[in-house]
Amino acid sequence: MSAGKASARPGPPVLLVVAGSPYAARPVDRAADRAERRIGLPVQATVRSRDAWRRADDGFLATVKSRPHLVLLTSNDDTGDR
């Protein structure tokens, strides 16, 4: 493998956690696929309920919330992160 090819590997993945309806999974996956193509990085999307996000009592969400993260809200959302 040449040095040029090694440096062309994608960077770390973008982790996208959507707190909302489980019915959002398909649109979220499609949006993640489009984002991957646009930014050239892998996008790992996960949909969890708003209540699960607030509780964060599973290992995955507890880890996500313990690390630097950005919370984006719509005008009707409240994740309890304020």
Question: What is the topological layout?
Answer:
Elements: H1 3-7, E1 14-19, H2 25-39, E2 43-48, H3 50-55, H4 59-66
Parallel strand pairs: 1-2
Notes on the structure:
With 82 residues, the protein is an alpha+beta fold. The protein has a domain at 14-66. It contains four helices and two strands. It has helices spanning 3-7, 25-39, 50-55, 59-66, and strands spanning 14-19, 43-48. A two-stranded parallel ribbon has the order 1-2. The longest helix is centred in the middle third of the chain and has 15 residues, at 25-39. It is globular, with a radius of gyration of 15 Å.
Gross morphology = globular
Low-confidence stretches: 1-6
Strand adjacency order, main sheet: 1-2
> What's the mean pLDDT score?
83
Strand percent estimate: 5-15%
Number of helices: 4
Distance between the termini: 48 Å
How many beta strands in the DSSP annotation?
2
Structural class: alpha+beta
Proportion of residues in helical segments = 40-55%
Q: Largest beta sheet, briefly?
A: 2 strands, parallel
Secondary-structure element pattern, one letter each: HEHEHH
Q: What is the rounded Rg?
A: 15 Å
Would you summarize the structure shown here?
This protein has 4 helices and 2 strands; from the N terminus they run αβαβαα.
